[in-house]
Amino acid sequence: MTVDTEHWTRRLAELAERHDVPGATLGILRDGEIGEAAYGVLNLRTGVEVTTDSLFQIGSISKVWTATLVMQLADEGKLQLDAPLIEVLPELKLSDPQVTAKVTMRHLLTHTSGIDGDIFTDTGRGDDCLSKYVTGLADAAQNHPLEATWSYCNSGFSLAGRVIEKLTGGSWDTAVREKLVTPLGLTRTVTLPEEALLHRAAVGHVTHDGKQAVAPVWGIPRSAGPAGSIVSTVADLLTFAKMHLDGGGDVLSAASAAAMAEHQVELPDKHTLGDSWGLGWERAGWDGHRVIGHDGNTIGQASFLRLLPEQGFAVALLTNGGNGAKLYEELYREIFAELTGVPVPHPLGPPSTPVDVDPTPYVGVYERASIRQEVSIGENGPVMRLCITGPMAEVLQDEPVTYPMVAVAPDLFVCQDPETGNWVPATFYQLPTGEKYVHFGARATPLCAS
């Protein structure tokens, strides 16, 4: 049964307008066919129209591509997931010598290495950018002990990209092109801005004083490429997804494709991204149905990919500003209900009946690379003040944001973004060894001052 693209083009436009999204593309994979829709403009400054062949930054969905490259190398016998990385990268040096000796590729793909994850050091545009980046990880904090918890880690995927380079003898960008883009027959998937310029490419938009403006920079540093710099179309992205739904096709072994979607680790926060993680894929349970996928966020662009393996079904949404999360939520709820019968769960919000929780034990300063979170008790209850620090602060130039917090359970709160109105879960917990953390925005941030 074909996808009714006219209907979904109308719904994309209606919902994108509601949520101030300047431009977006939507792709639906059903019964082996891809239906596409487009809305809006690529750039508010130029007014260039979005078409279905427009390229958007897919952000962290790139991590699944990097994980796929890793699994290809495992298929080729060049890499073992549970072998210490120093067997491939003897020059690797992390801040904790024991982690240096023990960290494996499985730790990187499952976000359990504990390496501080949001280090976006710009090491230049040369092919040696990842080599330089990995050298700099010697100064990166160990955010949590190896395997002690789960925390989203961009740094680990840049490190994985460097491993790919050592094993293939070329750049990560070359590996993406030669081992994925070309074999899959993709014609509009690139990794570098000078390649994106050859296509109809979106720019990001950020919100300041309630108005949308073109983002101050187009993309992220090249050193973060394996974590988030692929630029693509919904059709190319869904072709990649179909390869995984088809058991790897000619690109990946069936065993490796299956392993990527299988349960590897539970998440401390089961309300933000899913309930567990595979080898690159996030995993969620929607009314008893297993869904895999990934989201991506770059500077002013957001992407969303969900696969329902039991039906061979997938949906991709690429946006360039506004409240992309709300657009995703409402649009995917309609698509999955009408085309699969699977309900999309509602995001966690404030309870209908207030929950009485003493927030005093959670008051303090939580900090890691790029983020400082201060939990305090204000006139109307607990609040979280979030500051972006380091290189990302210089790029985004965002002011600190204060989130009102509402209790859901003794160790669980939801924090309302004053700009978008979205609710973000904050889970407070401690490791078996006693260290206290807050899990917010898919990251585990340690308490550094109470």
TrEMBL record:
It comes from the Bacteria. InterPro entries: AmpC-like (IPR050491), Beta-lactam-related (IPR001466), Beta-lactam/transpept-like (IPR012338). This is CubicO group peptidase (Beta-lactamase class C family). Residues 10-336 form the Beta-lactamase-related domain. It comes from Paractinoplanes brasiliensis.
